[in-house]
User: Fold this.
Amino acid sequence: MSVRKIVMILYRVLLPTGFALVLWDVFLPGYPFGWGWALLPLLVAFPLWMFVSRTGPRREVLDHPPVEVEPPVRGRWSAMNSPATKVPSHGTHAYGQTYAVDIVAEPAEGHRPAFAKFWPIVRRSRAFPAYDEPLFAVADATVVHASDWMRDHLSRNSLPAIAYLLLVEGTVRGLGGAPWITGNRIVLNLGDEVYAMYAHVRRGSLKVKPGDRVRAGQQIARCGNSGNSTEPHVHFQLMDSPDLDAARGIPFTWSEVGVPANKETFTAAPQRGAGNGATSQTAPADEVPPSQRSA
Assistant:
C-alpha cells in the first residue's frame, strides 16, 4: 500500500472523528475530555490533506510528453478547469486530478443555461445539452472499473445552490472519498501504467463492465450529473493508478484537438474505424487489441 493511500485513509478517519468529537464537546462540554483534545483529529487531518493535495506527479511523468488519446466526446464542447490554463487544473493534486479537464456541451450559442444569481435555484439535468451525450473510449483499453448506480441530481448553477455545494454537500461528499466525489465513473487501463477516468457518468448508462476490452471510439456510457457536480459535464483525466486515493495525474492531449483552455470551444469529430462493441475476457486473441494482449 502506497504512502499516498495510507494518508488518504487516515484523513478520512480523522476528519469525521474530529467533527464528531467537536459536536460531542459542544453538547457535553468537558466530557470525556476538553475542547483542545476534541480538535486534535482535525488539526492532524489538515496537514495530511495538504500533503496529498500539494504532492504532484512523479519526476518521470513531468519529463515525459503528454499521452495522446482520442477525445472522449463528439460534437461541439467547451472546456472548464483546464490544465492548459493552470496546473493543477482543479486546484489540487488529490485523486489524480493534476491534469484533469471538465468539458460542457455547446451545440449552439445560447443553448446551454447560464449561471443564475438567484433564480432558478436549480434546474433538471435534461436542461443541459451535455446530459445524455455519449462517451467514447479514448484508446484501445481494458475496463478496470465501471459504476452507474448513483442518481443524477439537480444542477448547482446558481449562487444559493453553489453555496450549498461548497459548504454542505461538498464537505459530506469529501468525507465519503473519491466514489462520492466522482459519482458514477469509468476507469480504463490504456497500458504502460496509464489509466483514463471519466467522472459524473449518467445513472444506468453503462455499456461496458470490468474486464471488457474496448476499442478507441467505442461508446462506453453517457454523460450525467452524478457526484460533486454543478451541472452535467464530462470530467476526464489520465493517471498512473486505477486507485484514485493513490493516483497521480498524467498529462494528455486529444488527437486533432490538443488541450482546450478554459472557455475555449472545440469540435471533436468521430474517429475513423471506431470499434462497435466490447469483447469479453474470453474473447479470442485476434479480437483483442494488440496493446492489450499481454494484459
Summary: Helices lie at 3-27, 35-54, 59-62, 159-176, 178-182.
